[in-house]
Amino acid sequence: MKRLFVIIVVLFLSIESFAQSPQILIPFRVATKWGYSDTLGKIKIPAKYDTVYFFDYNTVYKGDHVIAIVKFNGKPTAITEKGVVIVPPKYDFIKVMQQSAEITFFVSNKGKFGVYRKGKELFPPIYDYMDVTSYGHFKVHKDNKWGLINDAGKIVIPIAYDDLREKNVIKPDIVNWEAIEWGKEGKLITVNTNLQFESSSPGGPADLQEIPGYLTPEELNKAGDAAKKEFNLDSLRLNDYSGIVFKGKQQGILLPLEAKKVYLFSKPYTIHSIKYFHSYERGYLKKNSAAYITTVIDGKYGMINEKDEIVLPFVYDNIQEKEGFYLLKRNGKVGFFIWNGLYPDIQPIFDEYVRKYEIPVNYNWNFILFEIVKQGKPGFVGENGISYFKD
Predict the structure, then answer these.
(1) Half-sphere exposure of residue 226, counting CA atoms within 13 Å on the CB side?
(2) Is 56 strand, coil or helix?
């Protein structure tokens, strides 16, 4: 039996812009300060910030720059990948907002809100509450009254009403608002948005890829029964596309989709888990193995493939499968093995694993970054094994 899997590929405009944007930058810690390096660990922005965050490669500034919010002397500031300051560190809060083709920032001081754009305040943080409308205007609240500011920073509806409601759209760039004063009939106010809209092209038809060799539970059970008879197995335990088999003192695996169904191992391994690679996966992952098997021998964890070849040596206290990688543990330390990556395993020299990040490099590859703790201090290590910190 075969099943059709639908693979939908959506190419966002922001990702197209990303293809032209600068190289990936990684947060890099030097002692207690943070900067950024490239993926090889070469410093690109000096470590002078209290805190840094990842650059947003989906929000492109002035055509080819990307933005990160960092903290300098306790205040947030926005910088480009060149380290150029585009919002100064004088606000309590900064948030990036993509508005039409222009990057806009919400800014806040002492609980009041404003907007920063094109190197200056579109309007200062003096409002109690603010929201951006569907058409690029800012609905603001001050002294218990509502008003409207357009995308040029001009007040187009005075801040004098108990409520403002978007009534209807006359044309794509002209909107009727209902301005309400309690106890009076609503007043209709027409506002030109001055906003340029880009037509979005609908996504193309989804690509259909037929994945051969899907097994239903019934078919898997049937294949297990057949293998048990053919190879005179004592017992087996099935799981998805594979199974663990037992024959005398030997353990092995069942791969029902392979030409060779049963693989018995030469050593008395204890099998903990099997990761099976479908034939279509082996091509793009460049895998010569059909499966990776996490096993234990003499109290130590390691990994072999179906050919009884060692993938990871038997030196670990534990190997724990995570989403997209294996967490290696030894002597209270942690390391990493990315089963679908291009790089060798990262030895367990870190005190703690915190989380995994994926940074887009191109359409087919995300650079994997692990947040870790070493000697009580935070840091990052890349899938290439480079540590992005220096004490």
Answers:
(1) 11
(2) strand
Strands 56-61 and 65-72: antiparallel
CA-based nearest residue to 224, from 202, 244, 194:
244
pLDDT tens digits for range 201-238: 333 333 434 344 567 888 888 888 998 899 899 998 98
Residue-wise pLDDT tens digits, 61-78: 666 788 899 999 999 999
pLDDT number for residue 15: 36
Of 246, 202, 245, which Cα lies nearest the Cα of 8? 202
Q: How far apart are CA 77 and CA 74, in angstroms?
A: 10
Of the candidates 391, 343, 362, the residue with the CA atom closest to the CA atom of residue 370? 343
User: Greatest CA separation found in the chain?
Assistant: 90
- Tell me the C-alpha to C-alpha distance, in Å, between residue 327 and each of 166, 209, 288: 52, 32, 22
Distance CA 13, CA 360 (A): 14
Residue 4 has pLDDT above 70, yes or no: no
Global pTM exceeds 0.85: no
Provide the b/e sequence for 252-263 (b: ≥16 CB within 10 Å). bbbbbbbeebbb
Give SS3 for 183: coil
Domain ranges of the chain: 91-204, 215-316
